[in-house]
Amino acid sequence: MPIKIPRELPAKEILEEENIFVMDEQRADAQEIRPLSILILNLMPEKQKTETQLLRYLGNTPLQVRISFLRMASHESKTTNQNHLDTFYKTFEEVRDKTFDGMIITGSPVEHLSFTDVDYWEELQEIMDWTNDHVTSTLHICWGAQAALYHHYGIDKHPLPKKCFGIFEHDVLTPKERLVRGFDEVFLAPHSRYTTVSLEEIENHPELQLIAVSDDAGVFLLASKDGKHIMATGHLEYMANTLKEEYERDHARGIDTAMPENYYPNNDPEKQPKHRWKSHSSLLFSNWLNYYVYQETPYVWGEE
Question: Which family does it belong to (predicted)?
């Protein structure tokens, strides 16, 4: 089934060229079906790239999904065209009285700051509190996952001695958990971050369940035991070239970032990276949409 997005969204043409099932609002409204309503809080600087990455996987399930995009009113984006934001994004004030079946909170390149020093932290805290009563399940990615752990569970992030950057193996700890149904016992996923969270603190928290970890990258997948909050500290939504683009961008800015680990064939940056985590990316998003959103959300909000 398709994702339902505005007809003019730039990602629509890209996704259609990739044979992703996309339906514009006019056609979807004519169907006798209630689509899942998913809100995406996009905190990434290159918003159009992130939109396309997420929509690829949200559009690859048997469920019809209506997408809405959210931006921070307390932060001015310097990397996304204002017309794009005005056309496709809403502010929290515009959605606070609505309910959503699911929500995604993305990462953000603000790891060097304490949470309280992020200029939109107060607004983000309000949004995260709001999700408890207005969203069935929220998927948090990378810094978004760390922000959720800090806000909801009091677990802070910690700096790493070097950037966790590359493709790493992960072990599934809870194979019967719905989020990893269909996963191999060991799977690959990208990471790109300077901070981490404590495995011990998560294991000892009574409300959290650890789902997948990496010997090299640490904690990766975890969830609240009620399924309201799903956290992924890496980036399964990334495409084959995303780490390459980040690596080249850092060097163009004079940042001496080490080459991403386990990424380039034969560690040769001249060779094209392979997309070796795509199937598990599809499984993660489809499992979340099905088991944590579709199977749990009320058909009509406010009714049991």
Answer: Belongs to the MetA family.
As to burial, measured by CB atoms within 10 angstroms (0-12 exposed, 13-18 middle, 19+ buried), residue 123 is: middle
Question: Residue 201 catalytic?
Answer: no
Active-site choice (151, 170, 229, 235): 235
Give the residue ranges of the annotated binding site for substrate: 163, 192, 249
- Which among 142, 152, 164, 229 is annotated as catalytic? 142
Whether residue 258 has pLDDT greater than 60: yes
Q: Where are the domains of the chain?
A: 3-156+197-239+282-294
pLDDT score for 19: 57
Q: Check if 18 is active-site.
A: no
- Which string of b and e fits 263-272 if b means at least 16 CB within 10 Å? bbeeeeeeee
Inter-residue contact 206 to 164 (CB < 8 Å): no
> Which pLDDT value is given to residue 1?
47
Structure tokens that stand for 99 in this block: 């309910």
73-96 per-position pLDDT tens digit: 998 887 788 889 889 999 999 999
Range 3-156+197-239+282-294: architecture per CATH: 3-Layer(aba) Sandwich (3.40)
235 is catalytic: yes
Name the binding residues: 163, 192, 249
Q: How many angstroms from the chain centroid is the CA of residue 196?
A: 17
Distance CA(299)–CA(304), nearest Å, equals: 9
